[in-house]
Amino acid sequence: MKTTITHPFPPLYDENARVLILGSFPSVKSREQRFFYGHPQNRFWKVLAGVLSCPVPTDIPEKKRMLLSHGIALWDSIARCEIEGSSDASIEHVVPNDLTPIFETAEIRQVFCNGKKSWEMYRRYIEPEVGRGAVCLPSTSPANAVWSLERLTQAWREHLTPYL
């Protein structure tokens, strides 16, 4: 059953951010934890730790430190939507997030989207407002099983490294 949900936690960024990574909308686990990529099978934290050559963070304070210390901001394309569970495919009636505060605070050099749903939402709702494109990276979701952890890490490294 679909439920209308408003994004339950704020973006992560500071004035030193150079890269903005956008997901689509938080999973059930992320909504419960009130932080990004909370499902233990999502490979986001392992991929970024591999890209940044640092240990995989184990708690929210460590995750925040890892991102901010490397100039990475984190948010989602969607502020509110109808969704069934954690399924991106079920998302309807989208209200996009306003990225203006991030762009006004930090000198974001590149926007990346974690997966196609985030990228589609960015292209449809946000890009026309902000006038800047985004790069679609392969999703770190466990649903994207055709991409191994090693292959994901390499693809993300190739795209992110020039901006870090």
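[next item in queue]
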Amino acid sequence: MGLDTKDFAILGALRLDARMPIRDIAKKTGLRPSTVHQRLVKLKSEKVIEAFTIKANNAAVGEGFIVFMLIKTKPQAVVNSIIHNEHVKEVFGVTGEYDVLVKMKFSDVAAFNDFLLKFRKHENVEATLTMVATASIKEEI
């Protein structure tokens, strides 16, 4: 599906506030409400919009300790074992020395340490490189 400037304008408005009413999106984008509605239906049906979600305050929901981990492994074996873990928020296959990049959120360093001790026992994990976020400068959904 080819997106045009109207589609990108609608997506931009929804990125600011996924609960924005159609009338407000129409005002913000200069489109008619019926046009916004039709395009939203199309964007959802063609899977351009996968979900409407929220951006929670990490600290307020007990996920203020954010970790990025590069993993050298047989990717599918490890991905299958951690993808449904509550702490794992994003998983990417990457190029370079490592195979997988995982973004995780924990309540504190102790919770991360518990996860890490169990994870490192995984037989397919060859190496990891862990980076702890010290500041959240920009995080989008």
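[queue empty]
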